[in-house]
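Dear H.,

Thanks for agreeing to be a second pair of eyes. The structure we're designing against is below in token form, covering all 662 positions.
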């Protein structure tokens, strides 16, 4: 036996979608109902564990044998569930991969597992078994009855008179459905095997599997939460909302039944002499500048009531495991256009920033449950709670956090890729890219808060908006007009940036020409250190690291301006599988972000022995021994990969007793 393909069906009273698989398996009633498997691509078999069948001894041994590769679609689910199952029923054979100080001791080593969902994502395919089967046109497709069967057998049911008041459906309650459920389980194994067969000519590089295994280790390790702080934050939010609703009722004479209702709020404002088109954050900010005091107070209360910070705290409460650590927060290859991670559960990727100067003091007040002091010291408690969200994450007792991130990683990568030398010189000399960009654009020296310092803001907005072919619309979206730049200035700002960056501008259109040629002629091309080629109905872009980006069924189409464009199939803005239009600057954005991702993974591998507990965009969070050197971590993180010769990287960091933005 070399490979074991697995699919399982499970039961737990814990809500998987809210809590994640790690907490799901901690429920006392968690169990595996069906164990579907295939050895080396052979016939799929189903073990009916719910009705007393047992997994064969050779398969149990295979689960703990690191020389046998275990395959599953979303293998994290199978591996974590089987870890719990083996610990409970086969404890003598269960082997974890933890050392005493680490927190991965409840799980099977991920190094012996591979995930067909990751393989699908690597190929630009959907992240669902049904979606992949449909796109690949497999002979055997995932059965549509699955969702209904899972609802029936895998989650608690509502007690009714008709079902005798039971809270769970067992096999004997509907034997026909149970037989269908076993067929569904078997079919999933067959579909997974066929995906592997279909993709066998496009293997995932072994170094990417190494990255996946590191990702799984980080998910297994989790990150500690200060649950006393989290629970008090939720309680504070509830108290302040009660106060605000009461105050709003007094101000509006109870004419607004639901403060979150846009229509009720609009109607009340109109009745009181203020007609509004929108109540979004930007519109309310403008209204507050001129609204009468009473109306302004109501609008401010509504803004505070609409603050969704408590949802993050509730997500923490949902996801936290028995040891007060949150696990499973990162989806490897969640963004298959670049291969970047996406967030799960608590979603660390979109945490609010913290700017209040007395962050530690405010946190202490919440942790101590001192609502009276909070109410006395702060006018906007929901905003304070929002800024404190990051501080919920803490290192374990006796440790510290080291937080280190790359400085201007995408700006560095695109300059290196395009050969924009003046930008490379700025980074080499430790300069400010926004000042340098403004200086290059306007032909004058620019120093932050000094000589021509007012131009730095224009340099910054141009850097953020224009690097991937953006124009006037991109500047507006980035808030250029709101920042005081005149609308009539925007076209000249675009021209100035492009003239200052001729090599980057040329890179966009060189990539555009190359991709069109490759798709049209089904050939290959090379732009700088990036290789572009067509194979078996797929467009591939191979990065300097050796990893490839994949685009399904590329074709030449027509854009909205009547010009030629490249299209391909993928998951679009609607979250559905559709044909997507792209062009040179967009492909360059994919390439640059993908290279930045590869640099992050190179750093994560370099630092893997330091117990990484989380990563956010281009930042790594380490749960560190207090003796560990911050400078050593930053030095190692900032090392240039061997495949990126000439790229100047820099990592900066700080130490903290709870997670925060420095």
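And this is the sequence the design step returned. I haven't edited it by hand at all.
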């Amino acid at each position: 036996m070399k490979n074991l393909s697995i699919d399982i069906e499970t039961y737990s009273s814990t809500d998987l979608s809210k809590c994640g698989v790690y907490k799901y398996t901690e429920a006392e009633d968690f169990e595996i109902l069906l164990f579907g498997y295939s050895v080396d691509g052979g016939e799929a078999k189903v073990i009916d564990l719910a009705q007393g069948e047992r997994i064969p001894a050779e398969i149990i041994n295979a689960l703990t044998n690191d020389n046998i590769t275990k395959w599953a679609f979303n293998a994290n689910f199978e591996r974590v569930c089987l870890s719990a199952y083996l610990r409970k029923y086969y404890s003598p054979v269960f082997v974890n991969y933890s050392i005493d100080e680490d927190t991965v001791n409840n799980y099977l080593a991920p190094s012996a597992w591979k995930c067909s969902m990751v393989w699908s994502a690597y190929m630009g395919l959907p992240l669902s078994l049904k979606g992949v089967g449909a796109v690949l046109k497999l002979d055997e497709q995932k059965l549509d009855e699955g969702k209904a069967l899972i609802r029936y057998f895998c989650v608690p049911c509502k007690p009714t008179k008709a079902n005798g008041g039971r809270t769970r459906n067992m096999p004997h309650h509907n034997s026909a459905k149970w037989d269908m459920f076993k067929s569904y389980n078997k079919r999933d194994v067959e579909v997974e095997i066929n995906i592997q067969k279909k993709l066998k000519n496009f293997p995932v590089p072994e170094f990417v599997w190494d990255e996946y295994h590191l990702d799984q280790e980080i998910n297994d390790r989790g990150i500690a939460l200060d649950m006393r702080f989290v629970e008090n934050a939720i309680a504070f939010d509830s108290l302040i909302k009660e106060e605000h609703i009461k105050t709003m009722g007094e101000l509006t004479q109870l004419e607004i039944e639901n403060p979150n209702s846009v229509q009720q709020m609009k109607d009340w404002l109109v009745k009181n002499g203020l007609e509004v088109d929108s109540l979004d954050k930007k519109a309310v900010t403008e209204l507050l500048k001129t609204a009468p005091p009473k109306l302004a107070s109501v609008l401010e209360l509504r803004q505070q009531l609409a603050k969704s910070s408590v949802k993050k705290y509730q997500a923490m409460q949902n996801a936290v495991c028995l040891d007060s650590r949150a696990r499973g927060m990162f989806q490897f290859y969640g963004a298959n256009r670049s291969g970047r991670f996406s967030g799960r559960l608590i979603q660390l990727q979109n945490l609010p920033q913290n700017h209040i100067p007395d962050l530690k003091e405010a946190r202490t007040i919440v942790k101590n449950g001192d609502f009276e002091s909070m109410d006395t010291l702060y006018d906007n408690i929901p905003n304070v709670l929002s800024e404190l969200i990051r501080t919920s994450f803490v290192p374990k007792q006796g440790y510290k956090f080291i937080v280190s991130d790359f400085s201007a990683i995408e700006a560095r990568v695109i300059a290196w890729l395009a050969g924009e030398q003046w930008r490379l010189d700025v980074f080499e000399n430790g300069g400010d890219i926004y000042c340098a960009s403004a200086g290059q654009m306007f032909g004058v020296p620019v120093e932050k808060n000094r000589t021509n310092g007012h131009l730095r803001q224009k340099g910054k907005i141009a850097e953020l908006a224009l690097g991937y072919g953006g124009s006037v619309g991109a500047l507006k979206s980035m808030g250029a007009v709101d920042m005081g730049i005149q609308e009539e200035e925007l076209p000249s700002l675009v021209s100035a940036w492009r003239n200052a960056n001729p090599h980057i501008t040329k890179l966009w259109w060189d990539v555009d020409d190359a991709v069109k040629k490759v798709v049209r002629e089904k050939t290959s091309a090379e732009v700088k250190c990036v290789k572009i080629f067509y194979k078996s109905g797929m467009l591939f872009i191979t990065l300097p690291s050796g990893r490839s980006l994949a685009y399904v069924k590329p074709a030449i189409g027509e854009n909205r301006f009547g010009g030629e464009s490249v299209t391909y199939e993928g998951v679009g803005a609607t979250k559905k599988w559709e044909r997507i239009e792209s062009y040179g600057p967009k492909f360059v954005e994919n390439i640059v972000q993908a290279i930045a991702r590869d640099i992050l993974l190179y750093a994560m591998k370099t630092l893997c022995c330091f117990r990484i507990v989380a990563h956010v965009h281009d930042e790594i969070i380490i749960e560190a021994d207090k003796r560990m050197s911050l400078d050593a971590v930053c030095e190692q993180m900032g090392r240039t990969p061997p495949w990126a010769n000439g790229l100047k990287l820099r990592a900066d960091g700080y130490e903290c007793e709870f997670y925060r933005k420095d």
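Two observations from my side: The two ends are 51 Å apart (CA to CA). The CA atoms of residues 85 and 454 lie 63 Å apart.

Warmly,
E.
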